[in-house]
Write a structure and sequence with these properties.
Blueprint: H1 2-11, H2 18-25, H3 34-42, E1 49-50, E2 56-57, H4 60-76, H5 80-92, H6 114-121, H7 125-133, H8 145-158, H9 168-184, H10 186-189, H11 194-227
Antiparallel strand pairs: 1-2
Amino acid sequence: MAASSARERSASAGLLSIGQVLARLTPEFPELTSSKLRFLEVQGIVSPSRTESGYRKFSPADIERLRLGLSLQRDHYLPLSVIREQLDEADANGDSAAFTPPPSITPAPRRYRRDELLSAAGAGPQLLNDAISTGVIIAQETYSESTVTLLRGLVALDRHGIEPRHLRSLRQGAEREVALIESAMSALLRRTDAPSRAKASEMAPSLASKIDEVRSLFVKEALSRLLS
């Protein structure tokens, strides 16, 4: 067993685990998850090596394919089959490093630096610091448009004395809802075939929407009791 572990460590030298890949790519692609990484593997966008224990290991070339593939999907809305063909062609020509994506059909979603986020949301630095320290907003190098919307909401609530620390339970509740959805889809998520992954991608937002409807009704009923 010790010899096997030593061989795995030697074979994995210079390679990255799924967690390390996520840490490297999520600042640029915040929606990337371990599940999506596995789905991209099924679709042939990337083919990581495996250790004797079955763990995925990603090479620098794998990381570059992922970065290019995710950029094409985000900026150009290309189907994964087309992305795979373009990447395979670039690899076959030995020119993947010089691969240039086609001109974007639509501009890439804007990302905001911290100072730009504060300006766009009309927020003060302390409010953002409080939101980050309480986990209501996740600290990043750059922020999405949805974070701008969230911070604007925090600014409005703060005027009424509702601080980010009061909203921590909402973030935690959202995480519990995601866990509930994950449990409901556990059979699908255990499968790695493309149809199952596609079905899971459709089912998750639908379940989230239904949970949101139920939560909204609960809030309306509670407000009705408060104001009656």
